[in-house]
Amino acid sequence: MLQNTGRNLQVKALVVSNSSYTKSAQQLAESNGVVLLHYSNLSEFLEKL
Fold it and tell me: What is the DSSP letter of 8?
């Protein structure tokens, strides 16, 4: 889940899926500025932009 820290969110890419992400996918995404979202969280993410 994304936390609103009051800072501008800097995202290089956004991946939306209807499934979960593997631990290695999460680690790779984090190290490259990629946000992984489940489709059910997309609206919440967009509201924070």
Answer: P
Contact 10, 33 (CB under 8 A): yes
**Domain, as residue range, for 38:** 13-47
Closest residue by Cα to residue 15 from 37, 47, 45: 37
Q: How many helices (H) and strands (E) does the chain have?
A: 2, 2
Structurally, the chain folds into a number of domains equal to: 1
Closest C-alpha among 49, 19, 16, 7 to residue 34: 16
Q: What is the pLDDT of residues 7-39, one digit of tens each?
A: 556 678 999 999 999 999 999 998 988 999 999
